[in-house]
C-alpha cells in the first residue's frame, strides 16, 4: 500500500528515470540528458525528488570544467577578431595609420594598438615610412588561426575541457574572463557533477510499477489538444496525490457582520416590518424632544451627545409637530397629560447633534406611518463614550414600532417572544418591568441563550401618548429596541466590539460565522 | 442611571425580613432595579435604579419601602405632612426668605429630625441621598441642593438671604479660616465644582440663623460649625433650596419619609416668602402638593389587553403602594407623599402591571396583518453588494467617525464641508466621514502582510455639509472600492466600473478631472444621467506616502442615492 501511494505521487520525470536505468548504472546530468533528453533543470529536479524518496543514492562527486563564449566572444565569432578585421581592412583598402584604422573599424585606439603590436611581432603587418601599416606576410599567426577555430567550435554550445588540446586550452585560458582579461572571449565554468545510482528500494518500486503498468507516458494535465487529438484513448491518466495541501484562494465575500445584520433585517421583514432609514445628523427636537424627554433630563447633558460644530442649529423644525411637542412638554397639550411643567426652549430644540438613539427614526416614522403598521431600522448611532471593548464611538441600534388597535401589553409580550425565538433563537423568555422616558408601560425582555446564558435582549414599551399624539397618531404604538451586538460578537467569535469595524483585511478574510 | 450603596442590615431591617441573593434579585425587578453587587464582607449591596422618574427609590429606606409594599406589607405612617389649609404646628421653627432671592434661587423647604442619635450608617445614607437627589434629580445641585445641620446650635428664625459675595465671609466645612463667598468659588474644591450654578448672578444665596450663625452657602458648601453634622447628634435641621417649587417639595418629602422610615420623628418648618409661590407666601414643609390622577378603567383594560375586574384593578394599584378609590368608571389615584411621577393615565396603567406582577400577563401574538419590506436603498445596496462580491471584492465595514488627520490631512484635501463634532471625546473620533476612501486606505495601510491582490469595498453612509438642507448636512449612501496590487491601475478599475454598471443595467459617462487625492490624467468623474455620481482613479503617491502604503492603489467611489433616483 505504501509503495502504491509512493508510486502515485511520482512525477513523470521520476518515473522515466526509474524505468530507464538499472542496477548501478550512473545517473547524472549527462546520462539523463543523453538518454532521456532532460534539460539541466529537469535533471536536477528529478534527482533531488528521487533522493528525498530514497530511490537513488549518491555514488560520486567530481568537478568538471566547461568552456563557452562570452558576449564579446560571440561578437568576435560573427564580425571577426580585431586582428582579422585589421588584416581585412589593409588588404581591401590599402595602408592605414593606426588612428585611421581605429576610425574605420570603430575600435578604440588602445585595442588597435595592441592588436597591431602582436601582428607586427608575428610578421603579418609592418609600418612604412609614412607610419602606415602595410602587408608583410599577410598570413595570420597560428595562434590567431587556432583562436578562430575555437570561436567557431563554441559558437552554439559549451564543451567539456576534455575535448581540447593543451595549446587550445592555453589560448582559452589567456583570453578568458577568469584571468582578468578586460574583454574576455571565453567563459570557464566549473561545475560539480554528482552521480547517483538506484537504491534497493528503487528496485522494489520498479517491479511494482511494472505490475501497475506505469510507463511514465501517462497524461498529466488534460489539455484541449489531448481532447481534440484523442491522445487520451492511447494513454492512461497519471494518478494525482489527493493529499497534497491545496493552495489558498482569495475570493469576493460579504462582510460577516453585514451578513448578520442582513439576516436580522430579513427576519424582521418576514414578520411584516417595513424598513426605515434616516440621516446621521439630527436635531435635539427629533432626537429627544419628540420622545418626550424633558430638556432638563439628566441624559441630555453635553457629555451624552455629540454636538455639531457647524451648523449649530437646524433652520426650522417641522410644523405642526414643533408646536404640539412644545405644548406636550409644557402642559401636556391635549394628550391627557399634565406635561413636564416647564418653559420649552425653542432654540435648544433646533440644536444639531449626531443621532444618539435609533428611536429618533421611530418617532419620525410616526409622521408617515400607516395604521396598522410595523416599521424597523438598523441604524448607526453615536454616543459620547470612551471607546473600549464594550463601547464604540459609533454602533448599530435595532429599533422599531408597531401601530394599531391591536397593540397592548399582552401583544407587546407576544412580539418580544417572537423576537426572542426568531431573532435570538431563545427557548426561555422572561419579562421585567423597565423604565424609558418615552414608553409606559415599559418592559425588558431577558432570554436564556445557549452560550451566553440569561441576558437582556431588548427594551420595549407602549409609546406615551405625549409622544404619539403630537405627531398625529391616535392609536397605541408599541416601541421596541433589540441589543443584537452581543449575539453578533458571539456569532463572529469576537469579544471586543471594536473588532466589528476592524481595518485589518486578513482578519476580515478569515472571519467566519458560527 | 443612579447607583446606590445600601447597608445590608439597615436595608433588611426596614424591609422587615432577610432575603437570599436570588430572592432579592427577583423582587428588585418590581422596582426596576438591578443588584450589581452583594458584598457580605463589607455588608454592602450595590443596586442600580433604572427609573429616573422615581427619585424616592434612590435610598436605602425608599427602596426597602417599595419592595415591602409589593410584598403586601404596608405600615407607612407619615403624619407630619402639611396640606393646603392644614398646616402642622412648626413650633417656632421658621425660615424667612429675603426678597433678593426671587431671581437667583427663589425657593427653600425644610424640616427637622429628632428622636435618637444619628448613627454612622444613617449619616452615610443621608449623604448618599443628598448626593443622588441633588445630582441626578436636581441637575447637579442646580435645581435642588440639600443641607443638614446641627439643629441644637440654630436660633430660629433662620434667614435665607441674597448677599454680596465679596463682603460676606464664613468658615466653610473642611477649612479652619474664613473665606468670602467669592473666594470659596475660586479656592474651595466644592466652589470650583459647583460655582457654574452661580455664574452671572449679582448676589449669592446664604443661610444664617437669628443670631448671625452661618448654616451654609447653598448650593455650594455648609459652614464648619452649624453645618458640621456628627454621629451622635440627636436634633437635625434639613433644608433644600432650588429653582422649581414642585421638585423641591418632592425632594424634601422624600428625605423626610426616609428619616421617618429609619424611626425618627419629623418636625415641620414654616417658610415665609416676601413674594408669591405656587402654594402661597406661607408654607409649612414637608408639604403635600400632589394632585390626584384618574384613569378610565376601560382605558386600562385596553392598554393591558386583559379584561380585569374593577376589584382586580384596584387591588393591583394598592399592591403597588397607591391610595385609590373607585369613581363610577374611573379610578382616582392619590399619589404617595414621596412620588410625583403620574403625568398621564398611562402611568396608572403601569402601576397595575407592577402591582399584578409581570408574570400574570400572558404573551399574545399580535394579529394585525402588515406587509414587510426592505427600504429601497437597502434593496439597491444588496444588488450592488452582490455584483461587487462577484467581481472578487471583500466587503469591509468601518466606523463613520474618525480624525481630521485621517479624513483631511492624509487625503491631501481641504477642510471643506466636513461635519465636525463640537465636543469630541478624543481627536480620534472628531469628524464624520465625507468619503469612504480614507477608511479603505486606512485598511490598506495596516494590511501589507495580507496576500495580494487586495480588493475591498464598503457600502455605507457619509455626511457632508449642505446649505440647501434644513438640517445643514446631507447624509448619502456610498459604495466605494479599492484595488491594491502591483501592475494594477486605472484600466482595472475602469473595467470594474463598466462591469458594475452593466449588471446594474445603467449607463454612465466619464469626464476627466483633477483631484488632489488622485493622479492627474488618470482620474475620471462618473456621470449618471448627466449627474455627477462618483469618481475613480489611481491614488496619488503623495497620499499613499501619507498613509505609509507601498503598493499602487486605485479606487472608485459611487453615490448610490443618485444611481437610485430613477
Question: TL;DR?
Answer:
Chain A has helices at residues 2-8, 12-20, 29-36, 40-52, 71-79, 82-93, 98-105, 109-121, 142-153, 166-174, 200-212, 224-229, 256-270, 284-287, 321-331, 359-365, 409-422, 465-468, 485-492, 505-510, and strands at 56-69, 125-127, 133-135, 159-160, 186-198, 274-275, 281-283, 352-354, 373-382, 394-403, 428-433, 439-449, 453-463, 477-482. With 514 residues, chain A is an alpha+beta fold. Chain A has three domains: 2-55 and 199-233, no CATH class; 69-192, Orthogonal Bundle (Arc Repressor Mutant, subunit A), CATH 1.10.10; 258-510, BirA Bifunctional Protein, domain 2 (2-Layer Sandwich).
Using brief descriptors, characterize the structure shown.
heterodimer, A: alpha+beta, Arc Repressor Mutant, subunit A, BirA Bifunctional Protein, domain 2, 3 domains, seven-stranded mixed β-sheet, three-stranded antiparallel β-sheet, 20 helices, B: 566 residues, alpha+beta, Phenylalanyl-tRNA Synthetase, Chain B, domain 1, Phenylalanyl-tRNA Synthetase, Chain B, domain 3, 4 domains, ten-stranded mixed β-sheet
Amino acid at each position: 500500500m505504501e509503495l502504491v501511494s509512493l508510486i502515485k505521487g511520482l512525477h513523470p520525470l521520476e518515473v522515466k528515470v526509474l524505468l530507464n536505468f538499472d542496477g548501478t548504472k550512473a545517473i547524472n546530468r549527462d546520462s539523463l540528458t543523453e538518454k532521456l533528453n532532460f534539460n539541466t533543470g529537469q535533471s536536477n529536479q528529478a534527482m533531488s525528488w528521487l533522493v528525498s524518496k530514497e530511490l537513488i543514492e549518491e555514488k560520486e562527486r567530481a568537478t568538471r570544467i566547461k568552456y563557452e563564449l562570452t558576449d564579446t566572444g560571440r561578437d568576435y565569432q560573427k564580425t571577426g577578431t580585431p586582428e582579422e578585421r585589421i588584416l581585412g581592412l589593409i588588404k581591401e583598402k590599402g595602408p592605414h595609420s593606426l588612428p585611421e584604422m581605429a576610425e574605420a573599424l570603430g575600435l578604440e585606439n588602445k585595442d588597435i594598438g595592441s592588436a597591431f603590436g602582436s601582428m607586427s611581432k608575428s610578421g603579418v603587418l609592418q609600418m612604412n615610412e609614412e607610419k602606415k601599416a602595410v602587408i608583410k606576410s599577410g598570413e595570420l599567426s597560428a595562434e590567431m588561426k587556432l583562436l578562430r577555430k575555437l570561436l567557431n567550435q563554441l559558437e552554439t554550445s559549451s564543451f567539456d575541457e576534455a575535448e581540447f588540446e593543451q595549446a587550445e586550452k592555453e589560448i582559452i585560458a589567456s583570453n578568458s574572463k577568469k584571468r582578468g582579461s578586460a574583454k574576455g572571449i571565453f567563459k570557464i565554468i566549473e561545475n560539480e557533477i554528482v552521480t547517483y545510482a538506484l537504491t534497493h528500494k528503487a528496485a522494489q518500486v520498479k517491479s511494482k510499477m511494472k505490475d501497475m503498468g506505469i510507463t511514465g507516458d501517462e497524461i498529466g494535465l488534460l489539455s484541449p489538444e489531448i481532447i481534440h487529438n484523442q491522445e487520451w484513448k492511447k494513454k492512461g491518466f497519471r494518478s494525482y496525490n489527493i493529499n497534497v495541501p491545496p493552495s489558498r484562494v482569495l475570493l469576493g465575500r460579504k462582510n460577516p457582520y453585514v451578513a448578520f445584520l442582513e439576516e436580522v433585517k430579513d427576519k424582521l421583514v418576514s414578520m411584516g416590518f417595513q424598513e426605515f432609514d434616516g440621516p446621521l445628523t439630527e436635531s435635539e427636537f427629533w432626537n429627544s424632544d419628540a420622545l418626550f424627554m424633558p430638556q432638563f433630563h439628566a441624559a441630555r447633558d453635553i457629555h451624552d451627545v455629540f454636538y455639531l460644530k457647524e451648523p449649530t442649529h437646524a433652520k426650522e423644525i417641522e410644523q405642526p409637530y414643533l408646536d404640539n411637542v412644545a405644548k406636550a412638554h409644557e402642559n401636556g397639550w391635549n394628550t391627557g397629560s399634565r406635561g413636564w411643567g416647564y418653559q420649552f426652549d425653542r432654540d435648544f430644540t433646533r440644536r444639531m447633534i449626531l443621532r444618539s438613539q435609533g428611536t429618533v427614526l421611530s418617532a419620525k416614522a410616526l409622521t408617515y406611518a400607516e395604521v396598522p403598521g410595523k416599521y424597523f431600522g438598523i441604524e448607526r448611532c453615536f454616543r459620547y463614550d470612551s471607546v473600549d471593548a464594550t463601547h464604540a464611538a459609533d454602533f448599530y441600534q435595532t429599533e422599531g414600532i408597531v401601530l394599531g388597535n391591536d397593540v397592548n401589553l399582552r401583544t407587546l409580550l407576544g412580539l418580544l417572544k417572537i423576537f426572542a425565538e426568531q431573532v435570538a433563537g431563545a427557548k426561555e423568555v422572561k419579562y421585567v418591568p423597565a423604565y424609558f422616558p418615552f414608553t409606559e408601560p415599559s418592559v425588558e425582555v431577558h432570554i436564556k441563550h445557549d452560550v451566553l446564558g440569561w441576558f437582556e435582549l431588548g427594551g420595549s414599551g407602549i409609546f406615551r401618548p405625549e409622544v404619539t399624539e403630537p405627531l398625529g397618531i391616535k392609536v397605541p404604538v408599541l416601541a421596541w429596541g433589540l441589543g443584537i451586538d452581543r449575539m453578533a460578537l458571539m456569532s463572529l467569535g469576537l469579544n471586543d466590539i471594536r473588532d466589528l469595524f476592524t481595518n485589518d483585511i486578513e482578519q476580515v478574510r478569515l472571519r467566519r460565522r458560527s | 442611571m443612579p447607583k446606590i450603596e445600601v447597608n445590608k442590615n439597615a436595608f433588611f431591617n426596614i424591609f422587615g425580613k432577610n432575603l437570599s441573593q436570588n430572592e432579592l434579585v427577583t423582587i428588585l425587578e418590581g422596582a426596576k432595579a438591578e443588584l450589581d453587587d452583594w458584598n457580605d464582607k463589607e455588608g454592602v449591596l450595590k443596586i442600580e435604579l433604572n427609573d429616573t422618574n422615581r427619585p424616592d427609590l434612590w435610598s436605602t429606606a425608599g427602596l426597602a419601602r417599595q419592595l415591602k409594599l409589593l410584598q403586601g406589607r404596608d405600615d407607612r405612617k407619615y403624619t407630619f405632612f402639611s396640606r393646603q389649609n392644614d398646616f402642622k404646628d412648626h413650633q417656632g421653627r421658621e425660615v424667612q426668605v429675603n426678597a433678593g432671592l426671587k431671581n437667583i434661587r427663589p425657593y427653600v423647604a425644610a424640616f427637622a429630625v429628632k428622636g435618637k442619635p444619628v448613627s454612622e450608617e444613617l449619616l452615610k445614607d443621608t449623604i448618599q441621598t443628598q448626593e443622588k437627589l441633588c445630582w441626578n434629580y436636581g441637575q447637579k445641585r442646580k435645581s435642588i441642593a440639600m443641607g443638614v445641620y446641627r439643629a441644637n446650635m440654630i436660633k430660629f428664625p433662620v434667614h435665607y438671604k441674597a448677599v454680596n459675595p465679596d463682603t460676606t465671609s464664613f468658615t466653610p466645612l473642611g477649612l479652619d479660616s474664613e473665606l468670602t463667598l467669592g473666594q470659596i468659588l475660586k479656592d474651595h474644591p466644592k466652589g470650583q465644582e459647583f460655582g457654574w450654578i452661580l455664574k452671572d448672578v449679582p448676589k449669592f444665596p446664604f443661610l444664617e440663623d437669628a443670631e448671625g450663625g452661618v448654616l451654609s452657602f447653598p448650593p455650594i458648601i455648609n459652614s464648619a460649625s452649624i453645618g458640621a453634622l456628627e454621629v451622635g447628634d440627636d436634633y437635625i435641621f434639613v433644608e433644600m433650596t432650588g429653582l422649581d417649587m414642585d421638585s423641591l417639595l418632592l425632594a424634601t418629602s422624600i428625605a423626610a419619609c426616609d428619616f421617618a422610615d429609619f424611626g425618627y420623628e419629623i418636625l415641620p418648618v414654616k417658610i415665609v416668602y416676601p413674594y408669591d409661590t405656587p402654594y402661597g407666601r406661607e408654607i409649612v414643609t414637608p408639604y403635600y402638593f400632589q394632585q390626584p390622577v384618574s384613569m378610565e378603567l376601560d382605558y386600562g383594560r385596553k392598554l393591558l389587553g386583559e379584561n380585569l375586574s374593577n376589584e382586580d384593578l384596584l387591588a393591583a394599584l394598592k399592591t403597588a403602594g397607591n391610595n385609590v378609590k373607585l369613581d363610577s368608571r374611573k379610578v382616582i389615584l392619590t399619589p404617595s407623599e414621596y412620588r410625583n411621577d403620574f403625568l398621564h393615565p398611562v402611568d396608572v396603567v403601569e402601576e397595575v402591571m407592577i402591582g399584578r406582577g409581570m408574570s400574570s400577563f400572558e404573551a399574545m401574538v399580535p394579529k394585525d396583518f402588515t406587509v414587510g419590506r426592505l427600504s429601497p436603498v437597502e434593496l439597491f445596496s444588496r444588488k450592488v453588494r452582490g455584483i461587487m462580491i462577484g467581481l472578487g471584492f471583500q466587503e469591509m465595514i468601518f466606523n463613520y467617525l474618525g480624525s481630521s488627520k485621517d479624513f483631511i490631512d492624509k487625503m491631501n484635501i481641504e477642510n471643506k464641508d466636513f461635519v465636525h463634532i463640537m465636543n469630541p471625546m478624543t481627536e480620534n473620533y472628531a469628524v464624520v466621514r465625507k468619503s469612504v476612501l480614507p477608511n479603505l486606505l486606512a485598511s490598506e495601510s495596516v494590511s501589507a502582510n495580507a496576500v495580494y491582490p487586495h480588493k475591498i469595498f464598503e457600502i455605507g453612509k457619509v455626511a457632508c455639509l449642505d446649505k440647501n438642507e434644513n438640517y445643514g448636512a446631507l447624509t448619502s449612501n456610498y459604495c466605494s472600492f479599492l484595488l491594491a496590487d502591483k501592475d494594477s491601475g486605472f484600466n482595472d478599475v475602469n473595467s470594474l466600473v463598466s462591469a458594475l454598471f452593466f449588471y446594474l443595467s445603467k449607463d454612465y459617462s466619464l469626464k476627466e478631472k483633477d483631484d488632489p487625492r488622485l493622479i492627474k490624467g488618470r482620474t475620471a468623474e462618473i456621470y449618471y444621467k448627466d449627474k455627477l455620481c462618483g469618481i475613480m482613479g489611481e491614488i496619488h503617491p503623495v497620499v499613499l506616502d501619507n498613509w505609509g502604503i507601498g503598493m499602487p492603489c486605485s479606487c472608485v467611489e459611487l453615490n448610490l442615492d443618485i444611481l437610485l433616483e430613477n
